[in-house]
Design a protein that fits this description.
Layout (H helix, E strand, L loop, with lengths): L1 H8 L5 H45 L5 H16 L9 E8 L2 H6 L4 E2 L7 E11 L6 H4 L2 E11 L4
Antiparallel strand pairs: 1-2, 1-3, 3-4
Helix pairs in contact: 2-3
Length: 156
């Protein structure tokens, strides 16, 4: 009887399938989390690139209302490259400040790119909806990704 128990214990058929079934959920979770984080970082880089390119246009402009539209178009078109073409969750705010002290204290902002010599804060936020349901307990249903850049307009 004891030899029969040892004989059955030596049979390893199907053990690889059981090990695979135990390991694959952990492996897929790590793989999808890596993909999700990479996608979030790509979107954050896209936000920065869009703000950077938009601020380059705004820094040398003349403060006209059409300049604000041109800056917004530059931000949107550059961000679209990184976000697979979706702009529905993108919010861009452009505020200008008369002095660096006001910018740092975030007091007395005026909307728009402003005029010559003012400090401008370009901010963008994007609401990213998570893709994988098993990661929603970690990230939640959506993550707000924000980026900002501040510049001083050139004297023009």
């Amino acid at each position: 009887m004891l030899s029969l128990c040892f004989k059955k214990a030596k049979n390893h058929k199907g053990s690889a399938l059981i090990e695979f079934a135990l390991v694959i959920p952990v492996f897929l979770t790590i793989l999808l989390a890596t993909y999700e984080l990479g996608l979030m970082l790509t979107i954050k880089n896209g936000l920065f690139r869009g703000l950077y390119m938009g601020s380059r246009i705004g820094i040398t402009g003349n403060g006209s209302p059409s300049l604000t539209v041109a800056v917004n178009n530059a931000i949107n078109s550059n961000f679209r490259l990184f976000s697979a073409g979706t702009l529905g969750n993108l919010t861009v705010t452009i505020n200008n400040y008369s002095s660096l002290t006001n910018l740092l204290a975030n007091t007395s902002p005026t909307s728009g790119v402003g005029g010559t010599g003012v400090y401008v804060l370009y901010s963008a936020s994007y609401t990213y909806n998570t893709i994988t349901p098993m990661l929603r307990p970690i990230f939640g249903n959506s993550v707000v990704i924000t980026e900002s850049i501040s510049v001083r307009n050139e004297l023009y």
